[in-house]
Every structure is written in structure tokens, then in C-alpha cells.
Amino acid sequence: METNLKEPSLHIWQQITKSALREDRSEYDVTTQSTVLKEQVGKGVLRFKQNGTLAGMKAAETAFKYMDPDIRLSKVLPDGTQVKNGSTVAIVEGTLQGILSAERVALNLLQRLSGVATLTAQMVSQLSQYPNVSIVDTRKTTPGLRSLERYAVRCGGGSNHRDNLQDGVLIKDNHIAAAQKRGVGISDLIASVRKQIPHTLQIEIEADTPELAEQAVLAGADIVMLDNMTPDTMEKIIQSARKSQRAEHVVFEASGGITNDTIEAVAAAGVNLISVGALTHSAAAVDISLDISIN
Description:
By secondary structure, the chain is α/β, with parallel strands linked by helices. Helix content is 41%, strand content 19%.
């Protein structure tokens, strides 16, 4: 169980949650306002309906409190907890109008973030024999939800890749093609980039062939992404590179279609990082219910 996770700022939770509530026109919930009295109060139990990893309780709490500041949400379990099917994760109490009008947004965000954390935890659990290998996310996130989805990855035991385009240099195939069109090779490209960026930034090269990976290592790349390669190919590249003193501090990252079925073999190849876009672009939402009782 993880209890010391660094959460996004309260402002970010509020900004994203309020936007979702406005999209849902929660303040104009004609069904609830025409069927439930303002003074009616009740209690709701948030419960997992499958095994999973919890993430996003702050989103649920923020949604309920936006509709009614007097609503109380009591967390039974913290984010990062491995939750069993049927377990209660929180109890919400207050006006029924506020609870019911915020219900869908609260659940949507909680289910989405818990889904990301659950998939991440599943993949992380497969690497228990490879403590020096980290699973990282990518920028393949839901527009507007990146900070929360990256937090959910951390709740699942994963780590984060660069957050945005300012965080680091990642030279991909299209960048390389544009440089080659000008007659600029990998070595000169890296040297040119190095002169243009702060010394605190690292340079990563995406390589889809052993030849390009070798060029990137010799040219002084800090990180070499081995893209869409078999574990055997990655292992040969890494073993060959490690024989060179210039590759002593190079970080090798595996990427491209890595699944639960292949991740152990990829880790065994000797990589340092495994980036998995599916953590955020393909995670299935966890089934979570809100059961209401009326006082």
C-alpha cells in the first residue's frame, strides 16, 4: 500500500473536475432537482466491483464538494491500495441533490484513474525479478487529464516519462528524416542539439534498427529507445554497446507494443526502462459503484 504519493496540486484537481462537472451541466440537473428535495440528506458507499488499484479519490471528493461544500467524503482506503472486489473505498454523506448531481463525474474520474493504476500495477508486478527495470508512461494520455493519469501511473507503482515537450529532447524517426534531408547525420544532429539546449536536459534517440542504435550510442545520446524490437535483438544491441566505454552511462529504453505477455522477456534483455503507452491510452476503467441510502 502506498500512502506517500505526490499528488497533483489541489488547483489541478479542481480545474479538471470543475470542467467535467460543467460539461455535464451538473448545476442544472433537472432530474435530481425535480425529484429530490433540497433538505433531503443521505449516505453513499463507493465500492469496487472488481479487484484493482485505487487512484483518484481527490477527484471524487472535489466533485462532491463542488456541488455542496458541506458534503463529507471519508476515505476508507488511500490511493495506491490494492483493492479486493466488494471492498468499500470511501463513504460520502450530505445532501442528496449534491451527491446525485456529482455522482457521474466523480465515478468517471475515479474509475478512469483506478483503471490506469490497475494496469500499471499488473505490469509492475511482473517485474519483481528485475528491480533495476522501471516501467514508465508516455505522452499518449487523454487530453486534459495528463497530470491525473500520470499520478495514477505512480499509484500503480510505475514512473513517469517526460511530461511535456519542454522536459527533454526525444529525437524520433521524423526528426531524423528531416535532418537527413538536409544532409545531417546522427552525430552532427546530436552535437547541434546539445549546443541549443540547457545542460540539464537529456537527449534521447528513438532507434528502430541495430545500426541506428549503435550510431546513437557512439554519438553520445543519453538515452537510446529501442523501438519495436524483439527481446533478442535488444539484448544483442545492449551487450554490444556495453563493451564500449562511451556507452557506460547510456540508458536503454524499450518501447513499442509491449504487453503483459512480453514484458518479462523485454526486461530480461537488459533494458533500464520500459515505456508503455497502453498504461494511459488503453487502460480499462475499473467498475466502481456508488450505493445510496436515504436518511
